[in-house]
Each structure stands twice: as structure tokens, then as C-alpha cells.
């Protein structure tokens, strides 16, 4: 027969080592719900989905075009004549 001492499990656990129960962040929960609901919304509103995707692609292409134009014109001095006001000189610089 075993004659050792019986101690509770709490006696072996150091103080403060217990972590609080895991709480889920509201942002993560909302992101999960959006991920689950997105296919259903896309199927329910196909025209809006196509319009949204087309707009996103167009915005990406436009932003790349604007960045390319800014890089090409970087450092040049340009003039803009405003009738009745005068001439404005400007330079586009990038970091």
C-alpha cells in the first residue's frame, strides 16, 4: 500500500501562474462573421458584388498609374498659369 502524503494540486502550482480564461476579441468575432457571411451576401446581391469588385480593380489600376506619373514628374519644375492671378511654379518631390 502507498504511504506517501496526499497534497492537493493547488499546492504544486506556483502563485500567479494561472492565466485568466481566454476571452475573444470583438474585432476577431466580427471579422469571422464577415468572412462567413460574405459568400451569402455575394450570392444574394450579384450585381453589387460585380460592381464592388470592378471598382476595387479600377481603383488599384488608377493608383498605380498616378504613382507612376508622380515618379516620372518628380523633381521637375512646372508652371501653371492662372488667368488674372499670375503664374505658379511647383515641383513634385517623392521620398
Walk across the major sheet and give the strand order. Answer: 1-2
Shape: elongated
Arithmetic mean pLDDT = 82
What helical percentage do the residues reach?
40-55%
Q: In total, how many beta strands?
A: 2
The largest sheet is: 2 strands, antiparallel
* Global Rg: 32 Å
Distance between the termini: 79 Å
Low-confidence stretches: none
The H/E string reads: HHHEE
Structural class: alpha+beta
The total count of helices amounts to: 3
- What fraction of residues sit in β-strands? 5-15%
Describe the structure.
The protein is α+β, with helices and mostly antiparallel strands. The protein has helices at 9-12, 26-44, 46-72, and strands at residues 77-82, 86-91. β1 (77-82) and β2 form a beta hairpin. The chain is elongated and about 100 Å long. The termini are far apart.
From the structure above, extract its key features.
single chain, 95 residues, alpha+beta, two-stranded antiparallel ribbon, 3 helices, 2 strands, transmembrane helix, transmembrane, membrane
Amino acid at each position: 500500500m502507498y504511504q506517501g502524503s496526499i497534497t492537493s494540486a493547488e499546492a504544486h502550482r506556483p502563485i500567479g501562474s494561472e492565466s485568466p480564461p481566454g476571452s475573444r476579441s470583438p474585432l476577431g468575432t466580427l471579422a469571422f462573421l464577415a468572412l462567413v457571411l460574405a459568400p451569402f451576401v455575394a450570392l444574394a446581391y450579384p450585381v453589387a458584388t460585380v460592381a464592388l469588385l470592378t471598382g476595387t480593380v479600377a481603383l488599384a489600376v488608377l493608383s498605380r498609374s498616378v504613382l507612376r506619373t508622380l515618379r516620372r514628374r518628380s523633381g521637375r519644375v512646372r508652371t501653371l498659369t492662372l488667368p488674372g492671378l499670375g503664374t505658379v511654379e511647383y515641383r513634385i518631390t517623392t521620398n
